[in-house]
Amino acid sequence: MNKILSILSLIGLFFIAGCSKDPVVLNPADQLTKDIQLIDDYLASKNITAVKDASGLRYVVTQEGTGLKPSIYSNVNVSYDGKFLESGQSFDKSSKPLTIYLYTGIIKGWQIGLPLVNKGSKVTLYIPSGLAYGASGTTDGTIPANTNISFDIELLDDAAQLAKDVAAIDKYLDSLKITAIKDPSGLRYSVAAVGSGSKPTLTSTVYFTYSSTLFKKETSIGQATSIVSAYLGTIVPVGLQIGFQQISKGSTATFYIPSSLGLGLNTSSDGTTIPANSNLVYTIQFVDSN
Q1: Same-domain check for residues 50 and 124
Q2: Can you tell me the distance from the alpha carbon of 175 to that of 171, in angstroms, rounded to the nearest whole number?
Q3: What does the pLDDT look like over 269-289, one tens digit per residue?
């Protein structure tokens, strides 16, 4: 199970915890109103024209990409620089591009903002505190409570990598005469046993066993011979979220997952088991869901 969810431990940037240092406690609605005014005043003082989202987020696309817009359930490849709004001082900056799953484990400002932008774009997000680290701030105290921030983000386009990965998977399946179902996402899967139960949704809890390997290699990257459970919307790799929704409870299926639906540019926590841009293979026995 740790292998499936390991990406969440790789990306610790956006978790929210800590203690408030703000002596004036406003309710969330009033804090948001205050934050929006501060952000709008800042933008006006810098002569920055930003798009105003109803959530309170403000954003400026500085380079327009030509790729598709991600969904909340997408993996995205990004480089970023997080700054305090007023001072412009950087509090966190990526040293290299990495892959992040938008649905869970990151601040709401990213979840709202990045689906508004085409892949290949560069964008600056101006994020009110309630869509960032909130009334708690960060655990280490780097970002105090109720702090407005900005992120300069390059949203990389992974279309070329996806096309390369899908071509390699299809060639491999053809060479072994494996008949696989082709999902529009790029996922390929074969069903060895068809179950009679219902199909899950992203809000389902699924119960299953699994084994997983690197594509075209014998290297195991994880397995569970006893039944494990997980909330489908949080399972990583995201290719499994797509795959589970295609099969009925009681089925056994093998999923061939292109890297952009896997860990993407990230590596596994040990740095060696799963290299960046690795295609993955998961065989799942789907036992139950609720």
Answers
A1: yes
A2: 6
A3: 776 789 999 999 999 999 999
Q: What is the pLDDT of residue 152?
A: 98
DSSP conformational letter for 215: T
Domain check: are 28 and 170 in the same one?
no
Q: State the CATH number of the domain containing residue 200.
A: 3.10.50.40
Residue 13 pLDDT: 37
CA 126, 75, 163, 161 dihedral sign is positive
Please give the span between the terminal C-alpha atoms of the chain, in angstroms, as a whole number.
Answer: 18
User: Do 210 and 278 reside in the same domain of the chain?
Assistant: yes
User: Can the peptide bond before residue 184 be classed as cis, meaning omega within 30 degrees of 0?
Assistant: no
For residue 287, the tally of other CB atoms under 10 A from its CB is: 18
What is the average pLDDT value for the chain, to the nearest integer? Answer: 91
- List, for residues 9-34, the tens digit of each pLDDT value: 333 333 333 444 545 689 999 999 99
pLDDT of 237 > 80? The answer is: yes
- And the tokens for 224? 């569970």
Q: Which of 106, 129, 156 is the last residue of a domain?
A: 156
> Token match 């809890």: residue?
205
- Residue-wise pLDDT for 60-79, tens only, equals 999 999 999 999 999 999 99
Q: What secondary structure does DSSP assign to 253-285, as a single string?
A: EEEEE-GGGTTTT---TTSSSS-TT--EEEEEE
Same domain, 59 and 96: yes
Structural domain count, the chain: 2
Single pTM value for the model: 0.86
Residue 246 and residue 211 in one domain: yes
**Whole domain around residue 283: which residue ranges?**
159-289
